[in-house]
Amino acid sequence: MGVGKIINTIIAFILSANTYTVVYTQESREEIEQTVILSKDIVQETTEEKVSPAKAVARNPVPTSTVSPWWNYPSDIKNVTRRGDDFLVLVNKEYQLPSTYAPTDLVSICSNVTNLRCVNDANFLIRSILIADLQEMVNAATQDGLDLSIRSAYRSYSTQQSTYNYWLSVNGGNVGVTDQISARPGHSQHQLGTTLDFSSAEINDGLGGTFASTQASKWLANNAWKYGFVIGYPAGYESVTGYMYESWHYRYIGKANAQEMLNNGMILELYLRSKN
């Protein structure tokens, strides 16, 4: 689907006797094109195996979502209980960021981190406070003979709206399917400026299910927490996170917090719930 067909498209349909109208927001052509380029090759991943405690997955039985089915949003959406620049702010389907929130310390990733490629030479942004730990992690991966690239980083509220609308269009207006793989605006961890989508030359810098089988993905799963990065949506916990498994999606919460989360055998969603 071309970008021209995406911009200003309106999709209206009936779902469970409710009308849901989607309007693509007017953003700069460059920003919308980047969103589509970064999203178009995502595929769902297998959830046959849960990752180990070293990959920050709960050791104990975890509660499932109280919303049925698990990918639905609750009827009572709440505002986040911490500031957006707090590493432990809980952003999920129940808690949303304000549409006006944007980090004040965003910097270009590939202008500040070496040995890390930005796919399509995109000017990906991330909060400056995590640059040092990101560089340390990339250096360690490089020393282990691994290649890492970035497919997505900070997304504004309006860019997330475009991303969600794109996937809604791809899925024929099916909200249920779209809500399993894409966050609605205000509910995305990418708006925090502390979340990265990784890839590798092993899969030609692709994004999706094939990343899970790469050496880069396995290295991140075992080592990213040492540098403050933890996987956001682990395998086997879809009913807890509300999203399908994403092996490429990592959020920075700081080294001490990542260590505490690991020690407690918790996934990110449950760890953040305990802090909010």
In short:
The chain is an alpha+beta fold and 276 residues long.
The radius of gyration computed from the alpha-carbon positions, rounded to a whole number of angstroms, is: 18 Å
Low-pLDDT segments: 1-61
| Percentage of residues in DSSP E strands | 15-25%
What is the total domain count? 1
CATH topology: Muramoyl-pentapeptide Carboxypeptidase, domain 2
Compressed to H and E, one letter per element, the order equals: HEEHEEEEEHEHHEHEHEHH
Major sheet description: 5 strands, mixed
* Name of the CATH class: Alpha Beta
The number of E-state strands comes to: 11
Count of DSSP-assigned helices: 9
Structural class assignment = alpha+beta
Backbone shape? globular
Q: Helix content range of the residues, please?
A: 25-40%
Instruction: Round the mean pLDDT to the nearest integer and report it.
Output: 83
Euclidean distance between termini CA atoms: 40 Å
The CATH architecture can be named as: 2-Layer Sandwich
GO molecular function: carboxypeptidase activity
Keywords: Carboxypeptidase, Hydrolase, Protease
Protein name: Serine-type D-Ala-D-Ala carboxypeptidase
InterPro entries: DD-CPase-like, VanY-like_core_dom, VanY/YodJ_core_dom, Zn_M74/Hedgehog-like
